[in-house]
Design goal:
heterodimer, A: alpha+beta, 3-stranded antiparallel beta sheet, 14 helices, B: mainly alpha
Chain lengths: 521, 88
């Protein structure tokens, strides 16, 4: 046999050898020695006489194969295998009554591979393989010698816990639970923009580059941990410089349903006086006035708007290089539904309600912050019945994130708006451009990483690259991680690339993908 | 070569009179060795597997991806590998 087989030859040989499998063995597979050791613990390991390779048929599979070979006749071989299978299950068959009787006493399944009543085969295997490690599965739960539960989080789950510390949920023993109640919840961490169904960049003609991909609809249906639905507040910590000097900003999430709640726009700054009165000053040619209302927030934000002229979006193209808008999009280069979204009463009401809510949130920011806030954030109901969040400015373009057109979609869109404003307030990053959503997402992802930690982990990650074969799943995962770190470094360095639509599209897509896939969770 | 001689080389592996000539068995064994060499990320062996076995391998953390060189399914442990290599 030649020492240098081509891949084609290798595949043909593998196929040929796979065909030599018996008793239901249909594949030849690559495995680790540790996995073979586990399979051997089942006790079913035999050697295929034609290939000399190990095989791990269960008795049931052998029985099925024997029945197939006998054409369904109850031969002695079939009968012996049936008895063996029953013995392994801890039961005997009574031919006269046509019933099975258990031979087990209590939970001790002698002869069965399932020695712990509620353990899975995998868990029993783990018990057998590692008898002295101080842990064991009991009734399906991994416990320490003292009976306490063992942390069974995967590396992804630990990472998710570390990167989303304020979302009210944590992975505990491999399960996602509500931090307060300890009850199991059904959806992933509330990473920012995780419920986005699609994200796409809009850039001025004739530039066109990348489109986002729709990956996920992992909506938090039960609302657990959703700070909006509980009427709570979102706190955004920005630790991007030094953990010892981290700042925090809290932005209440507002979703007005009544236009009357909207505070009147004014150009004057307002300060509360110590006696509860409001001293309105700063307006040119206007004397200070007093009001009996002391806590009315004041909206100014001269460089910011939540009510962009929708029709201007038709001057932009979807950033469609090779990717195609999917889902609700019809493939048109133009953001068609934005231009038409003002055509119905419903779309007008949704847009106005959202704008009122955004303005209220902005008005709660300090006057100094409002003065520096630049750009546009708006929420629209599109003609194809989606909730669309637009973030950006005329110079760099816009990013459109799409949510489901229901209460949950609107709530989560407004939650993401609150997150963005909280980020701006805490970080001082108040220039809302096409890269803003990406920067918010990246800052949230790397919360808790000071510059040193970030650089160290980035260097460590880079050095691991040579371990992966280019194009392999692990290589791609590694590359994604590297890009994520590089995007955060760009954000902290003020790199102009972090102001682009594709920066946001990449970041939001990552957020959605992580929530959806859960990686190896 | 990590393929175990206990599995590939000794006569007791093949057992008595298998109906396949010793030459054929040796050739198959050598082929198995070649194929096993193509494993990656800790996969150093090849075995026959039924759908049940493959599910079991997946349940215990096997990758269940395709080896690009042989086209066969592979079950290296993804989580362990990631933990070791990436440091997460």
């Amino acid at each position: 046999m030649s020492n240098d087989l081509t891949h084609d030859q290798m595949k043909r040989i593998a196929e040929s050898m796979a065909n030599m499998g018996r008793n239901g063995d249909s594949e030849l597979v690559h495995v680790m020695p540790e996995e073979v050791a586990l399979l051997e613990k089942i006790g079913a390991g035999t050697t295929n006489p034609r290939t000399g390779l190990r095989e791990f048929n269960t008795t049931q599979e052998k029985l099925n194969a024997a029945l197939k070979e006998s054409g369904g006749s109850w031969t002695k071989e079939v009968n012996d295998l049936a008895k063996q299978r029953d013995a392994e299950k801890g039961q005997t068959y009574n031919a006269s009554t046509n019933t099975y009787t258990s031979t087990n006493s209590g939970n001790n399944n002698s002869g069965s591979s399932n020695s712990q009543g509620d353990n899975s085969i995998r868990q029993d295997l783990a018990n057998w393989l590692t008898p002295g490690d101080g842990m064991s599965y009991k009734n399906g739960v991994l416990v320490n010698a003292d009976g306490s539960k063992v942390n069974q989080n995967t590396s992804y789950q630990d990472t998710a816990n570390a990167s989303t510390p304020f979302d009210g949920k944590s992975y505990v023993n491999g399960q996602l639970v509500n931090d307060k109640t300890g009850n199991s919840v059904t959806s992933g961490h509330d990473s920012i923009f995780k419920t986005v169904a699609n994200v796409v960049g809009l850039v001025a003609n004739p530039v066109a580059f990348v489109a986002g991909k729709a990956i996920n609809n992992a909506f938090d249906k039960d609302g657990d941990g959703n700070m909006f639905t509980t009427g709570g507040e979102f706190t955004f910590f920005d630790n991007n410089k030094d953990s010892s000097t981290k700042s925090a900003a809290t932005r209440a999430i507002v979703n007005n349903n009544d236009d009357n709640d909207r505070p009147a726009a004014t150009t004057a700054s307002t300060q509360s006086t110590t006696d509860g009165e409001t001293d309105t000053t700063g307006a040119s040619n206007e004397a200070g006035t007093y009001s009996e209302i002391s806590d009315v927030p004041t909206y100014r934000a001269p460089g910011f708007t939540s009510r962009p002229e929708r029709r201007k979006f038709v001057n932009y193209d979807y950033t469609d290089g090779t990717g195609k808008p999917v889902g609700t999009y019809n493939g048109n280069a133009k953001p068609f539904h934005v231009a038409t979204s003002a055509e119905s009463m419903e779309s007008f009401v949704v847009a106005e309600t959202a704008s009122n809510a955004i303005d209220t949130m902005v008005s709660n920011m300090s006057p100094e912050i409002q003065d520096k806030l630049n750009g546009e954030i708006s929420v629209q109901l599109t003609a194809d019945n989606q909730i669309a969040l637009y973030v950006g400015n005329d110079e760099t373009g816009y990013v459109e994130a799409v949510y489901a057109a229901d209460d949950t979609g609107l709530d989560t869109a407004m939650t993401d708006v609150a997150n963005m404003l909280a980020y701006g307030e805490s970080s001082g990053d108040l220039n809302i451009d096409a890269g803003y959503t990406g920067r918010v997402r990246s800052a949230a992802r790397f919360t808790g990483y000071d510059d040193n930690t970030l650089n160290q982990q980035y260097a460590m990650l880079k050095s691991e690259g040579s371990n992966y074969e280019q194009g392999s799943p692990l290589y791609l995962l590694w590359l994604e991680r590297v890009q994520e770190f590089e995007d955060e470094i760009k954000r902290r360095d003020g790199d102009p690339a972090a102001s682009s639509a594709d920066y946001s599209v990449a970041g939001v897509t990552r957020s959605v993908a992580e929530s959806a896939a859960g990686f190896f969770a | 070569m990590a393929f175990s001689t206990a599995i590939m080389g000794s006569s007791d592996v093949f057992g008595p009179n298998t109906g396949t000539s010793i030459a054929s068995r040796k050739e198959a064994g050598a082929a198995g060795e070649k194929i096993a060499d193509q494993g990656r990320y800790g996969d150093t062996m090849v075995i026959h597997a039924s759908p049940f076995t493959m599910k079991l391998l997946t349940d215990i953390g096997g990758a269940n991806t395709f080896n690009p060189k042989t086209g066969m399914l592979e079950f290296y442990n993804v989580d362990d590998l990631l933990r070791k290599k990436v440091g997460y």
